[in-house]
Amino acid sequence: MNEHYTLRVNGVERDVCDSWIGESLLYVLRERLDLPGAKGACEQGECGSCTVFVDGAAVCSCLVLAASAVDAEIATVEGLNPDGTLTDVQEAFVREGAVQCGFCTPGLVMAVHHLLDAEPEPSDLQVKEALSGNICRCTGYGRIFAAVDAVIARRRDAAR
Amino acid sequence: MSRSTIDTVRTDDRSGTSREVLGANALRPDGAAKVKGEFAFSSDMWAQNMLWGGTLRSPHPRARIVSIDVSAAWRIAGVETVVTADDVPGQLTYGLISEDQPVFARGEVRYMGEPIAAVAADHPETCRRALAAIAVEWEVLPALVDPETAIAGGFDPIHPDGNVIRHQRIIRGDTSATGAIVVEGTYELGMQDQAFLGTEAALAVPDHDGGGVEVYIATQWLHEDRKQMAKCLALPEDKVRLVLGGVGGAFGAREDISLQVHTALLALRTGRPVKMQYGREESFFGHVHRHPATIWMRHHATDSGEIVKIEARFVFDGGAYASTSSAVLINGVTHAQGPYRCDNAVVDGWAVRTNNPPCGAMRGFGVVQACFAHEGQMDKIAAAAGLDPVEVRLRNAMRTGDRLITGQVVESVAPVERCIRETAALPMPSPLPDRPDALLMPGGSGLTADRHHIRRGVGWGVSIKNIMYSEGFDDFSTARCVLADGVVTLKFATSEVGQGFVTLAPQIARSVLGVDDVVLDTIDTGVGSAGSTSASRQTWMSGGAVDGACRLVRERLFEHVGRAHGVDPLRLVIEDTDVVDSMGSLRVPVGEASAGLRIDETFEHHHRPTEELDENGQGNCHVAFAFVAHRAVVDVDPELGLVKVVQVATAQDVGRALNPLSVVGQIEGGIAQGLGLAVMEEIIVDNGRVRNPSFTDYLLPTALDAPEVIATLVEEHEPQAPLGAKGVGEPPCISVTPAIVAAIRDAIGRDLARVPVRPQDICF
Amino acid sequence: MPVLIPRSLDVAVEMASSHPDAHILAGGTDLMVEVNFNHRKPETVLALRHVDELRGWTIDAATRTVHIGSAVPFSEMEHGALSEALPALAEAARTVGSPQIRAAGTIGGNLGTCSPAGDSLPVLAAMEATVHLRSTSGERAMPFAEFMTGPKRNARRGDEIITGVSMPIADGWQGYAKVGVRNAMVISVASACLALQSTGPRLALGSVGPVIIRCHDAEALVADRPGAVDAALAAEFGRLAAAASSPIDDHRSTAAYRRHAVSVLAGRLLQRGTARP
Asked: How many CB atoms lie within 10 A of CB B687?
C-alpha cells in the first residue's frame, strides 16, 4: 500500500497516495478521488458500466491499472458537463425512458457520447455495435436506442 | 394503443394534460441524478473512518468443517475483526419462509459459496489477504445433487429439515378423463441468474452506544430484512434501522438476506462503519437463482384441440436452503394449465433440497417454468389437431369467470383472446435482405453465416401470471401523505429497484390531490412495511397505499374547504389543480386551500384475503392474474445452431397504463430477460460446483441480441385494483421464452425441450 | 518502484532485463481481470503504454510485408489501410470483446497471453506471421507456430519484450469466422481463418486445441484446385479441418460441437473465398 502517483482527471491533477499496486482506475476514481460516477459490475470488461475516456479512447476503467494511467487525459461522466446541466445525451436518456435502475447509465452515456463524437449519423446497426459492450439488464435497450435516435435527430436539426 | 419499436416510439401520453398525473409519461425524478452519475447506489456509500468487509466462502458443495483457525487473519496489519458462527449474537439462521439458512456455516457447509467467516479491514485487498489466511480443515462429504434422488429418499437428510422442501398435488375433476389427442413432453429449464448490474452492497453504521445499527442497503423489502437481521443480531427491531441505498436492479435476487447480517455484525463488533460490496463472482454465490426445473406434462384434448385434462409432474431444485422454494412450487403447479380452460387435472409437484446453489425468487417466480412446459404442449396439441398455434390458443383461451384447476374462479379481467388477437395483428418484420449486414444474422460480426444458411421461424407463447403474494399471506403496504401549503410529501418503504415507483407515486398524488409539487421522503423503515418489490405487486399494493393516504388527506382538505366556504364537502372534487364545487361555482386552487394547513394521513392497503391450498391443491390461493401474449420471429443458422431473435410482438393485459413509457420499459426489459433464458443464460452447475460465475461465461443479451419489440397495451380497467392497473413487471418475461423456442423449432423442424437452447441442441 | 513505465523501447528492454518476473502490461484486458478476480497478485508491473515504438504499424510495399507493433490496439486494425492489407485480421479484431476492449486490448496482449481462444491468433497462424522479441541481448524472431507452445504458454523469455508481429500482405482472398453463443462480445467457442495466398491456401483454427491448429491436410486438398468449390469439396475440406482439431469439453461448449463448428466454418470460408461474384 505504498504507491504514489498523479492522475489527470477531468483536467485536474489528482494525487493518489498510499495505494495498492493492483488497484484499478475504477477503484481509484470511486474510492480515492470521490468520483463514483463510473460503476463496477463485472470487473472484467464485460459490462461497460465503468466506461471512461483515456486519451480520448472509451475504455473499461476496471481494466486500467491506475498506476499505469499517469500522463494520460482521463475523463469521467462527472466531467461531461462541468456547469451541472445535462448534456443532450443525458437529457435524451431521461426523456426517452432509457433509465431504469440506472446502474449502467453513466457508462452508456459515455459510450453514446464517444460514438456520436466520432460518427454523428450512425446507422441503427452502428449504434447497436457501438453499444454492444454496455450491458443493461433493465431496459432491453429499446428506450436506449430511442434516446440515441433522439440525440441524432436533435443534433441534425441544430446543424441546419 | 401504444407501440414501441426501435425506430418509432409511440408511447401515447393518455393524461390529456401536460401535468405528470396518472396516464402521463411522467419522467423519473431520479433520472437526472442517474445520468450524471450522481445517484448514490448502495455501492457508492462512504463514511468517515469506514472499514471494508469481506466474506470467506465454502469451496465445496458439501463438507464437514473439521476446524477453523482465524488467528493468522487477526495478525494481518489493518484487520480489525474476524467473525464466524460463534460470534453471531442471536439466532444462527434466517430465511424468508423457513429459517433454515445459517448466517455462517457451523459444522457443515451445504453449497459451494456458503459463508463461513467474515472480516473487516482497512482496504479490500487487506480483506482478501485476511480471508486467504483463515485456515479451514475440511472433510469433504458426498453431495446430493440430483433432485430425483432427494424425492426418492435415497439420500440421508443433508439438513435437519429434510431433503423435501415441499410436495403439493392438485387433483381436480374427472381424473380418468381423456381425449382423442394425447400429447406429452418432458421440459427442462436451466438455472438462470437475475444478474442485476449493481452487485450486493451495504454500509452499516453502528450507533455510538453500540446498542443499534443503521444500514444503507439495496434490497427489495426493508422491513423483512430488518426482521431477520434483528433476530440474528439479538437486537430489538427498532434498534436496526434500514435505509434504502440506491438499488442497481433486483429481479428477485434481493429478497433474501445476503450480506445484511454480516455487514451489521462487523460494524457492531468494530464500532466503526463497515461497507461490504460483492464482486461479480461473489454475487453469483451470494444470492439465490431461478429454480432449474424438470416438468413432465401430458395433455388430453378433443380432436378439435380443446383441452380435456392435464397431467403434470414438476420438480424444482431448491438447492441447499429453502428460501422461497415452497411458494415457487405453488406458483408452478397452480399455473400448469396456462391461460387456458381446463376442468380436469392431476398435477404433482416437488421442491427439493440438494447441495446445489440455493434457488428462490426471480421475475416470473415458478410460472416461467410452468409456461415453458404448457406452451410446448399447446404447440403439440396444435400439430395433432391440425391447427395453427394461434387457433389452438384461441380455442382454449380462459375468460373471466372460468375456474382454475385449483377451483378458484378467475375474477380478474382476463382478456386472453384479445391479447392473442392483438398480437397476431401486429406487423411481421421484413424478410432478411438478400445481402444482409452480418450484424443482422445469427453469429453477427463472427461472420459465421451467409444469407442462404439462414432459416426463419415464428413461434407463440401466452401466459397467465398471479400478481401479489398467495396462500393467505397478508402482504399489505403502507404510505403516509402530508399536504402542507400546496406541497405533498409522500413517505413509504417501497423499494425502488428501477421499476419506477418513485415516478408513479407522485403521479398518484397529483391526480388525487391536484398538486404539482410532490416531495418523496427517504425510503426507510421509519414508516410501516410496504411489502416486497416483487410479484408485480407494488403498483397495486403501494400504489393503493399512496392512493389511500392521498384520499384520506383529500377528505380532510374538503372538510376544511367546506367549512371555510359553507359547502357540503361531499360536493367538492379536484379538477386539475383546483378544489371545485361540483354543484356550485366555488373554485379554489389547492395551494390556496391548503395554505397554513398540515394534513397528515397514513394508509395501509390490504388486498383481499387468500387461502392455503388443501391436500388436493384446491383453494382460492391467488389474489389476481395478468395475461400476455408473445409472438417471436427468429433467424436460425441450423447447421451451426446459432440464433438471432429478430422481433417480438406482444399484447399485454395491463389493466390501465398509469405511465405508458414505464410500461414499455418493463415490457422491453422483460423480453430481453426471457430471451436470455431462451438462448444463452445459464448457471452451469457440475456436481454442485458453479462453473461460470462471471460475465465472461454467464452471457447476458447485448444491444446486438435484443430484438425489435412491438408492443400493444391491452387496457381493460381491473375493478379489483385500487388504480385499475395490474402489475406489469413479470408478464413480459414469461411467455416470451417459449415463444422464442417455438420459433426455433419452427425454423429447424425439430423438437427442443430444454432452455437455454444451446447450439448443440439445434445442430445435432 | 513496482510499476515501471518506460518511455522508450530501449528503457523497456533494460527494465525487462532487470525485472524478469515483472508482469508485462499492455492494454490490461487480460492481466487486470486476473488481478480483479484475485487470481494474481502483481508485485512488479512493466507497463508499455508509453513506449511509442510499440504503438505503430507499417505496410512495406516493397517487401509486401505488414509489421504491427505489439501495443497497437485491435480498434486500429478494424478499419483503414491495415484492414485492407489484412482483411482477415480486421474481421478477427472486430470480434474481440467489446468496443471498449478493442480500444485497449492489443495484438501483443493476445501473443503474450497465448490463449487458444485469442481472436487474432488464427490469423497469425494462417499468415505464418513472425513474432519479434527483444531483450538486452538483442532481437529474436520466430514463426508464430513456434512461439505458441501451449495453452497460455509461449516462447517468450522473462527478460524479453514482444515488440511486434509481421506477416505478408494478403495477396489473395482471406477470411475469418468465429462462433460464440451471443451476437456480440463473446469468447470464441471455435474460430477459423482461411487465407488463399498465392503461395497456397492456409487454414488455421482457434479454440479447438491447446494451440492454434494449422490444417495441412485440408490445405493440401484444395491446393491445386482453383475456381469455385462445390458443396462436396467444401464438406471434405471441413471434415479434414475437424480431423485436425483436438477440442475439449468445458463450460463454454462441448468437444463434439467445437469439432462440428470448425468443420462448418472451414467449409463456409472455402466457399466464401472461392465464390465468383
From this structure: 12
B498: nearest CB among A30, A37, A101: A101
Binned at pLDDT 50, 70 and 90, residue B117 comes out as very high
CA–CA separation, A24 and B509 (whole Å): 45
Residue A106, pLDDT above cutoff 60: yes
Report whether the peptide linkage leading into residue B756 is cis, meaning its omega lies within 30 degrees of zero.
Answer: yes
Using a CB–CB cutoff of 8 Å, tell me whether B708 touches chain C: no
From chain B, the residues in CB contact with A46 under 8 A are 694-696
Residue B598: CB atoms within 10 A of its CB come to 10
Determine the pLDDT at residue B10: 45
pLDDT in tens, B17-61: 789 999 999 999 999 999 999 999 999 999 999 999 999 999 999
- Distance (Å, whole) CA C59 – CA C61: 6
Domain that holds residue A149: 88-159
Q: Which residues of B are less than 8 Å from A47 in CB distance?
A: 197, 695
Calculate how close chain A gets to B502, using CA atoms only, in Å. Answer: 11
3-state secondary structure C249-275: CECCECHHHHHHHHHHHHHHHHHHHHC
Per-residue confidence (pLDDT) for residue B2, from 0 to 100: 34
> Residue C16 sits in a domain of what CATH number?
3.30.465.10
Residue A4 pLDDT:
94
What are chain C's partners, defined as 3 or more CB pairs within 8 angstroms? Answer: A, B
Nearest-by-Cβ selection for B640 from C37, C175, C261: C261
Its ipTM equals 0.99
Would the CB atoms of B694 and C37 count as touching at under 8 Å? Answer: yes
Q: What is the pLDDT of residue A5?
A: 96
* Structural domain count of chain C: 2
Q: Which residue among A80, A109, A143 sits closest to B665, beta carbon to beta carbon?
A: A143
B439 → chain C, closest CA residue: C183
- For residue C116, which amino acid is it? P
Residues C116 and C7 in one domain: yes
- Grid cell for residue B350: 416437488
Residue pLDDT, tens place only, B619-646: 999 999 999 999 999 999 999 999 999 9
Pair C246, C151 in one domain: no
Amino acid at B152: A
Which of A33, A95, A138 would you mutate first to test chain B, the one with the most B CBs within 10 A?
A138
- Calculate the alpha carbon distances from B155 to B138, B146, B160, B167, B354 in Å: 21, 10, 13, 17, 10
Mean pLDDT throughout B743-757?
98
Which of B128, B640, B760 is nearest residue C264 as measured by Cβ atoms?
A: B640
Cα separation, B333 vs B325, in Å, equals 12
- Over 90: is that where the pLDDT of C226 sits? no
- The domain boundary, picked from C143, C168, C193, lies at C168
pLDDT attached to residue C42:
86
pLDDT of residue A119 exceeding 70: yes
CA distance C151 to chain B (A): 18
Distance in Å, alpha carbon of C220 to nearest chain A alpha carbon: 38
pLDDT in tens, C107-162: 999 999 999 999 999 999 999 999 999 999 999 999 999 999 999 999 999 999 99
Q: Mean pLDDT over residues B91-96, rounded?
A: 98
Whether residues C190 and C113 share a domain: the answer is no
Set of chain B residues whose Cβ sits within 8 Å of the Cβ of A137: 195-197, 249, 251, 669, 672-673, 700
Give the end-to-end CA distance of chain C in Å, rounded to a whole number.
59
Quick check: helix, strand or coil at residue B421? Answer: helix
Shortest Cα–Cα distance, B447 to chain C (Å)? 5
CB B237 within 8 A of CB B227: yes
Domain assignment of residue C109, given as a range: 3-168
Q: Which of A46, A78, A86 has its CB closest to that of B696?
A: A46
